[in-house]
Amino acid sequence: MPSQDPSHAQALQDEYEIRPDPVALTHNNDDPSQNAESGVDYEPYPEKSIPISAEHEKIVKAITSLYSGSASKEDMEVYAHDAIYDDPWSYCDTRYKIAGQWYGIPKIMASSKTLATEVVSDKPTEIIYKQKQEYKPRPLYVSKEVNSLVTLTLDGEGKVRYHKDQWNEKDYSHSGLGKIMKELNGDHLTKITQPPKDL
Fold first, then answer.
1. Spatial contact of 163 and 63, defined as CB atoms under 8 Å apart
2. What pLDDT digit, counting tens, does each position of 166-175 carry?
3. How many helices (H) and strands (E) does the chain have?
């Protein structure tokens, strides 16, 4: 699959990237002892989740299914063809490259389960939620729970254009060696995970 034009990817990032305020969105006022030193509490409390539309619920369900190893073309359809995925390890700027991440889950994980979510912000073109994911990597088979803040930016047709997964209060700088390593991972992982070419 051809690589995304860097200038087009930058334009996509400029238009759709949201830089959420993790403290404002997640600070636990009811029980401050649950907050990290940075003031964030990424532990999801499903009972506090903001109600969302059926359309947005479908998007969140597809995304959490991908986190849980569905490797499904149907779930991948929530992304626009030109979309960005951004987490501590990867930066992908097409749906095909994003699929490279999700199709790798069943290959490297014995299991991956979404244990809980809590929607903390919902707008027509934005869904932000806290997520607890349990990963059990091969061959260790030792479970590891990860709490994160997931931000989804949608276009006018309801497709995900920017997917950001933050594991702490720090946002991503998009510069330096870290960005280069993330892009390399996003660009080349598809060679290993081999998602369907027609994505």
1. yes
2. 988 887 777 6
3. 8, 6
Task: Tell which residue, 75, 131, 132, 130, has the closest CA to residue 101.
Answer: 75
- Report d(CA 126, CA 152) in Å as an integer: 6
> What is the rounded average pLDDT of the residues 183-190?
80
Integer Cα distance of 102 and 194 in angstroms: 10
DSSP-assigned letters across all residues of 88-136: SS-EE-SHHHHHHHHTTHHHHEEEEEEEEEEEEEEETTEEEEEEEEEEE
Q: ∠ at Cα 119 (116, 124), nearest 5°?
A: 145
Q: Which long-range contacts (CB under 8 A, 24 or more apart) does 183-189 make?
A: 183/91, 185/89, 185/90, 185/91, 186/85, 186/90, 186/91, 186/92, 186/93, 186/97, 186/100, 186/101, 187/3, 187/97, 189/90, 189/97, 189/100, 189/101, 189/104
Can you give the length of the chain in residues? 199
- Residue 58 — pLDDT band, cuts 50, 70, 90? very high
**Could you count the other beta carbons within 10 Å of the beta carbon of residue 116?**
17
Instruction: Name the pairing type of β-strands 126-137 and 109-123.
Output: antiparallel
Cα distances from 160 to residues 42, 55, 81, 156, in angstroms, run: 22, 12, 9, 10
Tokens of 183: 């892009």
- State the Cα torsion 59-179-5-165 to the nearest 10°: 0
pLDDT at 29 over 90: yes
pLDDT for 171: 75
